[in-house]
Design brief:
globular; 10 strands; alpha/beta; two-stranded antiparallel ribbon
Length: about 290
């Protein structure tokens, strides 16, 4: 499932990019070259074919090519030629550092958006892509579906919430591309700056947005029910309550989600009776180890 969700996030990102660059709502009729047809590349090709795209694919494993061709109608291309193919979108889904000073000069795609990690050989290659008029979708942003999947599996949260979280990649990428257009900065730099901004804001209670607070309220009911169910037979703990005002002096009066069974304040980390959080965007119940994202 992790691979499928990575592919789903990249597919949504490609649709966002073509909307931004070409003004079309889908990939129908567009040419997309997928480098690497393993687990993620195969599922990405499936989404693209279902959406109506013409998909070219390359892989060093003949079995992967055969499966994608037979099952999805992917057009096989020599791995040495896939990067320079004349297409609308190039999706690197294999090895890293494929986008470098030499390869960028040969690209004939207007958009680069793939699942591969560390696609840029150097930090300067994002600017090189921009200089060639190529729209680059930062890999660490658009391939986040996999790590989101891992988080939701660990936390025992519902599939619907996980899918909605993955789909927020669309809004984040749209914001990155907009800022890149306005500022003239390479998209990779903008995405990194936005990530730092999100982390900084998450640590400042006065900047907790209305939208985030609504998300907390919306998620509260279902998560609390699952939490209470896990406590059956363990002597129980005080039921999870709705939003509380944190009593810690550093954020007194701010409205945050806090559990009465030993969870810390989401924003100031005031409660010492807590489990180990997997990330900055999670708190964990010390009694039952259930994680709650915000």
């Amino acid at each position: 499932k992790k691979k499928k969700n990575t592919a789903y996030g990249v597919f949504l990102a490609i649709r966002t990019a073509v909307q931004h660059r070409l003004g079309v709502a889908s990939t129908s009729g567009l040419r997309v070259a997928v480098q690497g047809l393993g687990h993620v590349g195969y599922h990405l090709a499936r989404h693209l074919r279902t959406d109506g795209a013409v998909v070219y694919g390359a892989d060093v494993n003949p079995a992967n090519i055969a499966r994608a061709s037979d099952e999805l109608g992917v057009i096989a291309v020599d791995p040495a030629e896939i990067l320079s193919l004349e297409v609308d979108v190039l999706a690197p889904c294999a090895m890293g550092a494929v986008l470098n000073a030499r390869s960028i000069d040969t690209l004939r795609a207007g958009i680069v958006a793939g699942a591969g990690h560390n696609q840029l050989a150097t930090a300067e290659d994002s600017a090189r892509l921009q200089g060639h008029g190529i729209l680059y979708c930062p890999d660490f942003l658009i391939n986040a579906g996999g790590i989101i999947d891992v988080h939701y599996q660990r936390a025992g949260l519902p599939a619907e919430a996980k899918r909605a979280h993955i789909e927020r990649i669309v809004d984040t990428l749209a914001e990155v591309l907009h800022r890149a257009d306005v500022t003239g900065r390479p998209s990779n730099e903008v995405a990194e700056a936005l990530a730092v901004e999100y982390l900084r804001d998450a640590a400042r209670p006065e900047l907790l947005s209305y939208q985030a607070e609504q998300r907390l309220q919306r998620d509260n009911t279902g998560q609390a029910a699952r939490h209470d169910k896990r406590q059956e037979g363990r002597g129980g703990c005080v039921k999870a309550a709705p939003l509380f005002s944190c009593s810690a002096s550093e954020c007194a009066g701010s409205t945050v989600k806090r559990r009465q069974c030993g969870l810390r304040c989401l924003l100031c980390h005031a409660d010492s009776r807590m489990g180990k959080a997997a990330s900055l965007a999670e708190v964990v119940c010390a009694h039952c180890n259930v994680g709650y994202p915000y």
